[in-house]
Amino acid sequence: MILVTGGAGFIGSNFVLDWLDKLDEPVINLDKLTYAGNLDNLKTVADNKKHIFVKGDIGDFELVSKLLAEHKPRAVLNFAAESHVDRSIHGPEDFIQTNVVGTFHLLEAVRAYWRGLDDEEKAAFKFLHVSTDEVYGTLEKNDPPFNERNRYEPNSPYSASKAASDHLVRAYHHTYGLPVLTTNCSNNYGPYHFPEKLIPLVIHNALNGKPLPIYGDGQQIRDWLFVKDHCTAIRRVLSAGRLGETYNVGGWNEKPNLEVVHTICDILDELQPRADGQSYKSQITFVKDRPGHDRRYAIDATKLEKELGWKPAETFETGIRKTVQWYLDNQAWVENITSGQYLKWVEKQYQ
Ligand code: NAD
Ligand code: DAU
After folding, report:
1. Distance CA 129, CA 115 (A)
2. Which distant-in-sequence residues (6+ apart) come within 8 Å of 291 by Cβ?
3. Ligand 1 mean position to 260 CA, how many Å?
4. pTM of the predicted model over 0.70
5. How far is the CA of 131 from the centre of ligand 1 (A)?
6. How far, in Å, from the CA of 270 to the mean position of ligand 2?
7. In sequence order, what are the residues at sequence separation of 6 or more whose Cβ sits closer than 8 angstroms to the Cβ of residue 269?
8. Nearest to residue 298, comparing CAs of 150, 158, 172?
9. Could you list the active site residues?
């Protein structure tokens, strides 16, 4: 059995669904169900006996310790986090609480559990921490992509909190010998992506006749990876990664934001043309830039490819088409989210 945290969020739920689809091993899924956690993502496994969902906080030492003692997982995978950069700018505190303090309490519970295992179980146990390329800061146009030896230079409260969590994980290996693995991934996209992030927001707004907000000049570059490819990378690192190592995960798909939005508009123009015959591009609106906006991220995934033989299955072109189609087929999923709390966020952010 494995324990996954944050498994009701975007990447965590994709990971849990893929895991249960491909493997027989049960999953305990610990998630606080913040605004970003959504049990609708897990509907298809609601009756699956191999999926045990527990609502709770990674920072709750007693709860985590109880779950570990009761289920004796052979691995813990930490996806739980506050993940939206813009929210971290409006209110950093939750990011410090979950990403830093929460990860610390989780590590403490895991360390105590791991120490009490017998030799064989101890040798087999792994803690995998899911992190981001944003910890490396920003790149200039001609800089080489981030590799695992780049310095940490986080620029937002979100990336600083993730950097802090990475450092804690590293220290628990170095000091206590905890068998850890860390993955630093680039921007994900795909099914169940919460519509506050660029790609699902643009699809949702386009279909609802709303502006497609582009921060600043729209020339910021992100390196996009289809979420299922991130999940295969995590499974590969879990099974064969060297303990104490970090692995960068990326799709070699650098794109300026404006190009990403144009591509989405082109696909929507083809699959669901507007009634007035105009392109969805006419909804593009340039808005105030994000404070401290990182200009470019790019990931060098050579280590993961060479050492562990991982390669992404999707290109941006194939992945984005699947994603747009998924949102067209699952508009009810989005509608369930885009009410209440979410509307308040949109009002605050885009006023
Ligand atoms: P998300 O915001 O969609 O989901 C986060 C999940 O964690 C939610 O289900 C939420 O309820 C849960 N959660 C939050 N605080 C919690 C707590 N204290 N205890 C238990 N559960 C809690 O995030 P995501 O995009 O799925 O990202 C997952 C992980 O991957 C994060 O650690 C993020 O930093 C990392 N990451 C994300 C991306 C990306 O492009 N989305 C890229 C690289 C790395
Ligand atoms: O790089 C990995 C990171 O990718 C993850 O660690 C984060 O959890 C994840 O949220 C993502 O961060 P970004 O800030 O890159 O993603 P976001 O979708 O918020 O924005 C992508 C780019 O689009 C970024 O340059 C900001 C821009 N943007 C975003 C929004 C929401 C806009 O131009 N308009 C928007 O309305």
Report:
1. 19
2. 89
3. 23
4. yes
5. 9
6. 25
7. 279, 280
8. 150
9. 133-134, 158
Nearest ligand atom owner, CA of 10: 1
Ligand nearest to the CA of 202: 2
- For ligand 1, atom 28, name the residue with the nearest CA: 79
The pLDDT profile of the chain, 351 residues, written as one tens digit per residue, is 999 999 999 999 999 999 999 999 999 999 999 999 999 999 999 999 999 999 999 999 999 999 999 999 999 999 999 999 999 999 999 999 999 999 999 999 999 999 999 999 999 999 999 999 999 999 999 999 999 999 999 999 999 999 999 999 999 999 999 999 999 999 999 999 999 999 999 999 999 999 999 999 999 999 999 999 999 999 999 999 999 999 999 999 999 999 999 999 999 999 999 999 999 999 999 999 999 999 999 999 999 999 999 999 999 999 999 999 999 999 999 998 987 776 777 788 887
State the fold for domain 2-349: Rossmann fold (3.40.50)
Residue 153 CA to residue 79 CA, distance in Å, equals 21
Burial category of 86 from C-beta neighbours within 10 Å (exposed 0-12, middle 13-18, buried 19 and up): middle
| CB 249 near ligand 1, within 6 Å | no
